Amino acid sequence: MSSLPHQPALPAAEAPSACSAAAPIEIPRSALPPLPDDILTNRPGGHVDLRRFFPHPQRPLEIEIGSGKGTFLAQQSPECPGTNYLGFEYEREFFMMGVDKLTRAGSTNVRMMCLDAGDFLHWRVPDACCRVLHLYFPDPWPKAKHHRRRMVSDRFLADAWRVLEQRGEVRIVTDHAEYWAWMQEHFARWSSADPAALEPAHADRSASRCFLRRAFEPPTNAKMSEGELVGTNFERKYRREGRPFNATTLVKLA
Ligand SMILES: C[S@@+](CC[C@H](N)C(=O)[O-])C[C@H]1O[C@@H](n2cnc3c(N)ncnc32)[C@H](O)[C@@H]1O
Question: What is the Cα–Cα distance from 217 to 251, expressed in whole angstroms?
């Protein structure tokens, strides 16, 4: 995977976890405390410390939204054993296939949850806890009446900015031209393509320029075929169909 400049070194002594390396891949809903009654005025009261679900809680956390059958997680997690991966997939059938695949692979640095990732990010994920959000081939919801179901939205970008560490990244790939155009409209409100935006004194550092938009760099994953962007099931299927892809990386600005 492309390395981030701020990637922290592993601490010499890592804090103990509530969870052993052999813990099940699935984090059940029952592991989550209920949302507090005062959630509307006490947003942090709903947050869950996601690190405690991993045997090495101090390691950097990356989240995949819409993991499908878990192919990206299964390929990427052994490449980066010093990273914790958490995948969200709300279709139970795909989720179980992913859990099965990761269990059989003996993955110790991956967990999956079967729930709505957008709502979870909004209500449950603490600030500045995540290094990368992966969003590969999100459902395009092509009918206008379903556009509100699209993952990329102003709410999502606000939540992504909040949960990412400084210089953390949202990585996005899509095959869908009209969804891509929709994303571009949203990115224009939230990001700058000028690398100088990384400089603290840059004049374009307004509240509406929360991310730097830059070219997508594929992870270096030994199991990916040459020319692949992320090597997910949908990428492989769409590649066979000859569909073109669009991809970008949004880097969180302070
Ligand atoms: C088109 S598939 C892509 C799967 C995988 N990322 C890939 O590239 O092969 C989109 C996946 O995202 C899941 N999904 C869509 N919206 C979701 C949400 N809000 N929370 C969790 N999963 C979601 C769908 O169930 C589906 O499995």
Answer: 12
